[in-house]
Amino acid sequence: MIDLTPQLNAPILGLFGNDDTGPSPAQVNQHEEALKAAGKTYQFHRYDGAGHGFFYYHNPTSYRPQAAMDGWDKLLGWFDQHLA
User: Fold this and answer.
1) pLDDT tens across 54-64, in order?
2) DSSP reduced 3-state for 15
3) Helices in 1-84 by DSSP H: which ranges?
């Protein structure tokens, strides 16, 4: 999918747990470099101690309240900036 980066035409927000394996931090780095190289509008935020599904409050093993609350703030700010 990274090959499609040049065709992207919408701003991208990424919220990632640094303990995630899909995408892994290395994969997030690859995508970030491709977005930079293509001159795309994006914003990535990474959370230590969080894995995949850190927003999912129904699963206490993956839910990370601080990361989720910060992620919601980032998401709502992104919407205000790009969809208002």
Assistant:
1) 999 999 999 99
2) strand
3) 25-37, 65-83
Sequence ranges of the domains in the chain: 12-83
pLDDT tens digits, residue range 19-72? 999 999 999 999 999 999 999 999 999 999 999 999 999 999 999 999 999 999
**Is 34 within 8 Å of 5 (Cβ atoms)?**
yes
Per-residue buried b or exposed e for 47-72, using 16+ beta carbons within 10 Å of the residue's own CB:
beebbebbbeeeeeebebeebbeebe
User: Going by C-beta distance under 8 Å and a sequence separation of 6 or more, which residues neighbour residue 10?
Assistant: none
pTM: 0.91
